[in-house]
């Protein structure tokens, strides 16, 4: 499958069932939090999909949390496409989108901080992310026992070199 052409593109409403199925599978495995189809419809413009032969192979979203902060979320790769660089390609595309709208920081809550570390993100305290905590986390069923790790990438300043080029 590695030699097949995989393209990245903005998600469409027609992709929502496939995005939902992929995210539901990853949520069931404990890799991310679940999202409803209704939520995905409302946020479809936040998503980028990796597509192969008309099928969604991977997905990720950039949600704007405030005037300078965005979040990479719902990053998932179908098992058949693991270890092909799709997560990195999607994340770099989302970082480019963050730069395009003028965000200065991008964060993620993750179980795999090493993945984000390879892209220049650093582990931070959730206390450094009040926009996320008080808009989203406070409504989460895991709020008082969150086991995700917060990571952040600054898109301004000299430390922003980790993810500046799109592969």
Structure description:
With 167 residues, the protein is an alpha+beta fold. It is built from five helices and seven strands, in the order E-H-H-E-E-E-H-E-H-E-H-E. Strands 1-2-3-4-5-7-6 form a seven-stranded mixed β-sheet, sandwiched between helices. A hairpin with a 4-residue loop joins strand 3 (55-64) and strand 4. The longest helix has 16 residues, at 86-101. The radius of gyration is 15 Å and the shape is globular. It starts with 6 loop residues before the first strand and ends in a 13-residue tail after the last strand. The relative contact order is 0.15.
Feature tags:
disordered C terminus, 28% helix, 167 residues, alpha+beta, 26% strand, 5 helices
Helix content: 25-40%
Mean pLDDT: 84
Structural class: alpha+beta
Report, as a whole number of angstroms, the end-to-end distance.
19 Å
Counted beta strands: 7
The order of strands across the largest sheet is 1-2-3-4-5-7-6
Residue stretches low in confidence (pLDDT < 50, at least 5 long) are 159-167
The SSE string, one letter per element, is EHHEEEHEHEHE
Sheet of most strands:
7 strands, mixed
Q: Note the total helix count.
A: 5
Q: What Rg is obtained from the alpha carbons, in whole angstroms?
A: 15 Å
Q: What gross morphology would you assign?
A: globular
